[in-house]
Amino acid sequence: MVNQEDPRVLRTRQLIKEAFSALLQKKGFDSITIKDIAERASINRATFYAHYEDKYALLEDITEVAFNKMIPEKVLHSKEFNDETCSQLILMTYDYIVSFYKTCRLDSKSIATLVDEKIRKMLQQMIENIFSKDATFSTLDNLNIKIISAMTCSAIYSAAYSWLKEGKDNSPDLLLDLASTYVMKGLELYSNSHS
């Protein structure tokens, strides 16, 4: 097993990620091979496999690292799901989706599906963590928190994704207003009916 903190390991991982990102801009995910990535990164295939099991593991690592870098500090430490937290999650998700589709070719359906699934899981977990600390929801059992988190995540992710797909990428303030109102009103209705 490689030492993840070794500067050489970090540099090699960075070379692999840069090579992969460059290849994604030129060809679809399905047609990228480990050989392509290794050649572009100027490493051998064995070195690639010392760092990643396959290109799916590489994609997952890139997705997770990029998404985690975009999380605002206030969201990370939030103890309640309020208007500000909701707005930051919407904008963060939207910004991630925009950056992803600018990096990858839009015709890469398989990569889009993989990334969508990973981001949804991470977003849902983040929302679930906030709900479990929020006094309004913390009295609920874990199943209810999971379900409310899943619905909230779906609303945020779907709104951000649809906004980009409909070509509205130049007016995120309208997205924010629409999605935030929808999510917060839904949560308010839920909490009022269960008080």
From TrEMBL:
InterPro entries, alphabetized: Homeodomain-like_sf, HTH-type_Tx_Regulator, HTH_TetR
Pfam families reported for this sequence: TetR_N (PF00440)
Keywords, sorted A to Z: DNA-binding
PROSITE patterns xref list: HTH_TETR_2
DNA-binding region: 33-52
Keyword Chloroplast: no
Origin superkingdom: Bacteria
Domain spans labelled HTH tetR-type: 10-70
Matches recorded under PANTHER family: ACREF/ENVCD OPERON REPRESSOR-RELATED, TETR-FAMILY TRANSCRIPTIONAL REGULATOR
Name under which the protein is recorded: TetR/AcrR family transcriptional regulator
Source organism of the structure: Clostridium yunnanense
Lineage, top ranks: Bacteria, Bacillati, Bacillota, Clostridia, Eubacteriales
